[in-house]
Amino acid sequence: MSLQGKTVFITGASRGIGLAIALRAARDGANVAIAAKTDTPHPKLEGTIHTAAEAIEKAGGRALPLAVDVREEAAVKAAIDQTAKRFGGIDIVVNNASAIALGPIAQTDMKRFDLMHHVNVRGTFLVSKYAIPHLERAANAHILMLSPPLDMAEKWFAPHTAYTMAKFGMSMVVLGLAGELRAKGIAVNALWPRTTIATAAIKNLLGGDAIMRRSRKPEIVADAAYLLFLKPAKSFTGQFLIDDSFLAGEGIRDFDAYRVDPTQPLQPDFFIPDSATPPPGVTLAAKG
After folding, report:
1. Order of strands, edge to edge, in the sheet holding 240-242?
2. Mean pLDDT score of the chain, rounded to an integer?
3. How far is it between the farthest Cα atoms of the chain?
4. Which of 130, 163, 226, 258 is catalytic?
5. pTM above 0.70, yes or no
């Protein structure tokens, strides 16, 4: 079981979780299209589509850097068609691109509201829509959303209604597409981290270096995504997976290797249902 020769189209893959997933696929010799906005260096964020492409090539894959704003329909369609033409098809699509702005409704600027819904929901819908004709020709096609379980609890909405709506919107696409594409043998699933992940978004928006030390590395999500892509698409679909629980089900027992700082308690992420208990040996920081 391998992703060698498979083609993976990943949005927001110039850094963070998207890049980690790209690198894990590249280690098998996969073809990876990096569809992201960052074409030139950002003053506050590391990584561009070009540095990501270099890393993918070094890891053993073939890379196609594509400057794409997932809000632009023509750009999305062109990028997907270019990927299929370059590599002979598309086997896997990862909807990772996401925008975040936290705060209550009274303090949410409508431009931020629109940005989150255009990137998270519309972008996910758009990329998936134009990928379907190519995925229909793939042997074991997967669409993956980096989005949470649909846990309709007030506590997830009250502090940041706009962001929650946007992330749950991605998960609603999972729910609909899984049913729509099941007969075609295309799997559609969601994957979400149990803890915060050490990315620029976490550092800049949720607490700086302190929360980074309480986080896990992006590789835990990448390893879970990789094993998911090896699952039979015809039968493994419509799932809302938590990274460590899924990995535990696949036989992984050591989660300490993913911790940024093993001396620090792990910070729970948003949107993890109370019923989703962690695997044996995994302890989280107390809530609140």
Report:
1. 62-67, 31-36, 7-11, 92-95, 142-145, 187-192, 240-242
2. 95
3. 50
4. 163
5. yes
